[in-house]
Design goal:
Largest sheet of chain B: 4 strands, antiparallel
Number of helices of chain B: 5
Strand order of the largest sheet of chain B: 2-3-1-4
Distance between the termini of chain A: 38 Å
Structural class of chain B: alpha+beta
Order of helices and strands of chain A: EHEEHHHH
Strand content of chain A: 5-15%
Shape of chain B: elongated
Largest sheet of chain A: 3 strands, parallel
Helix content of chain A: 40-55%
Oligomer: heterodimer
Number of strands of chain A: 3
Strand order of the largest sheet of chain A: 2-1-3
Number of strands of chain B: 4
Structural class of chain A: mainly alpha
């Protein structure tokens, strides 16, 4: 399937793309556009204004996607807490990890194009997911 | 960058939420239903989401990349943004001053809270005034004093 999002991937978009590849559509192909009218007819838009898979009533797109696809894995929701604060910083959650994640993805998008950014952040989110998975199992942050 | 919007008079919650979020971004009001924010990739995206929220709440919103016809108007807008930021730094500076008299535990908590506040102010400070450095230094001095205290 093809998926479209805005060019210039930042944390919420990068997290959504990772979520799509890992949990929704392994064969996902991503298209980057500047304007919502440029979204190809066969592509599902996400993290764009006007898209169903976007920000809604205070949720970032990653949270919207978890709800939309019925993903109730508590580890994903713990990752969502971090993505939400990295993207919105509205103090809805306590997420000290968010500042670092925000800086890392922002910096990456300064030195790499969108495809490269998604490749790198894909690994970053794999690591983040594993860290949070172990943390939830242990009941404390893993060493 | 301008956000022109119209929200239904009732309910008032979306209006209040919008204002809280606009303030956190550092936007200033230009006139009724028109707010301005310096343009960068982050502010543009945040403003677009706010526009979408206005529409979700039954209102209308549009974003404009605008240019003032006179330099004087542009300066006036920038100085209004700068003034409100200076006021925020000054409030923070006086809180730092108050924290000196607190007990050690209270001071530690105050430092953590003030650091968060400083970070939040800096995120909407587009024209850093001298008070920005002053606030940062005052806060770090307060923290450094804790380290050496017996």
């Amino acid at each position: 399937m093809r998926w479209a999002t805005r060019a210039g991937c930042h944390v919420d978009r990068a997290a959504c793309a990772w979520l799509i590849r890992r949990f929704v559509d392994e064969q996902a192909e991503f298209v980057f556009v500047d304007d919502p009218v440029d979204v190809p007819a066969d592509a599902t838009p996400f993290d764009m204004r006007g898209a169903e898979l976007g920000h809604h009533v205070g949720d970032c797109s990653f949270e919207t996607m978890l709800k939309h696809f019925g993903l109730d894995d508590p580890v994903l929701w713990d990752v969502a807490r971090i993505v939400h604060e990295a993207d919105l910083g509205d103090d809805r959650f306590d997420a000290p990890e968010a500042l670092g994640l925000d800086v890392i993805t922002r910096g990456l998008s300064m030195v790499r194009g969108d495809d490269d950014v998604l490749a790198v952040t894909g690994v970053v989110f794999d690591g983040l997911y594993e860290h949070r998975r172990r943390a939830l199992l242990l009941g404390r942050d893993p060493a | 960058m301008f956000l022109a919007y119209r929200l239904p008079r009732e309910p008032s919650t979306p209006r209040i939420t919008l204002w809280r979020k606009l303030r956190r971004l550092g936007a200033v009001q230009v006139s009724d239903n028109l707010v301005a924010l310096p343009l960068d990739a982050r502010t543009r995206e945040q403003l677009e989401w706010l526009a979408a929220e206005v529409v979700d709440a039954g209102g209308e919103a549009s974003i404009w990349l605008a240019e003032a016809a006179t330099a004087a108007h542009e300066r006036e807008l920038a100085s209004r943004m700068a003034e409100s930021i200076v006021a925020e730094y000054q409030t923070l500076l006086s809180s730092v001053g108050d924290a000196v008299d607190l007990s050690e535990g209270q001071r530690r908590r105050a430092i953590a809270r003030l650091r968060r506040e400083l970070r939040s102010i800096r995120s909407r400070d587009f024209f850093p005034p001298p008070e920005a450095d002053e606030a940062r230094r005052a806060l770090e001095d307060l923290a450094a004093a804790m380290e050496v205290a017996p």
